[in-house]
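Usage

Read records sequentially. Each one opens with the input sequence:
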Amino acid sequence: MKIAVVILNWNGKALLQKFLPSVIAYSQEATIYVADNASTDDSVSFLKAKFPQVKIIQNKENGGYAKGYNDALKHLDEDIFCLINSDIEVTKNWLTPILNTFKTEKTTSIIQPKILDYNKKTHFEYAGAAGGFIDKYGYPFCRGRIFDTIEEDTGQYNKDSEIFWASGACFFIRKDVFNSLNGFDESFFAHMEEIDLCWRAHNLGYTSKYVWQSTVYHVGGATLSSTNPKKTYLNFRNSLATLTKNVSGSLFIMLFIRMTLDGLAAVKFLFELKFAHIFAILKAHIRFYGMLPKLLKERKMLPQKTKHFKVKSIVWSYFIDKKQRFLDL
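and closes with the structure output:
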């Protein structure tokens, strides 16, 4: 079973210089690629000079995470794709439990390792933690991270487990499954595209899994900080798109409730005097309305599958019931 470790890069020379050595040192089983998204810095020349053993794929444009990986993976023949952010430090033997799981569990199609915080290694990292879930209204959360509450890793999730979505920060998928799903939705550009893909995979009967014995450390926000309103815009817009395409049941009732909850999020930003984020939510909704006819056409073409959500509303559970740890849900 051949595996490709693919790092998407956009003007990230400093991150490659810092984190690529750990990937090279601990990924003997893999072919390592850097897919460059039309960088304007000297990333490519730096790679050629300092890391000649790494294969370089040069995309013609910066299509974000979604199109960037779609374009890059077309060139690869390996059986397993590992999509990994440029701000991740891997650990010794990190690929072994992943490959063993793919070999022994034929129904497992997508895998995420344990993702800890590079700057606070005793704690989970925001983007993925110990595997992702979603509530009825399309709000994502993780084992080890709900909204801004991040848990310490005390071994509470030291067990392989089925999850609903795997983090795009370190995302393993079988090549044939990725191709059968037609890859990521390129209209997303970045953020939530891995959740959309995992939801589409789930609706087709594929299984996503968290494998705890593989550990990586993620800086997080190295490309786009959580304080950047653009991230707020992409997360809210793409979350609405993901919900529209994939959820079963009465879509418009769920969208109405979801939009009400998004309005409450805007009120929260108002009290925090984060006015740029309020406008980002408004912009996300306006853009979503423009996308809605296309999304409804896609919805008709995609299978929807009844999903037993762990919680109906993570917003209610977290803010009203004060259940701020995954194990309390």
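Summary fields computed downstream for this record:
- The domain at 3-218 is CATH 3.90.550.10 (Spore Coat Polysaccharide Biosynthesis Protein SpsA; Chain A).
- The mean pLDDT is 96.
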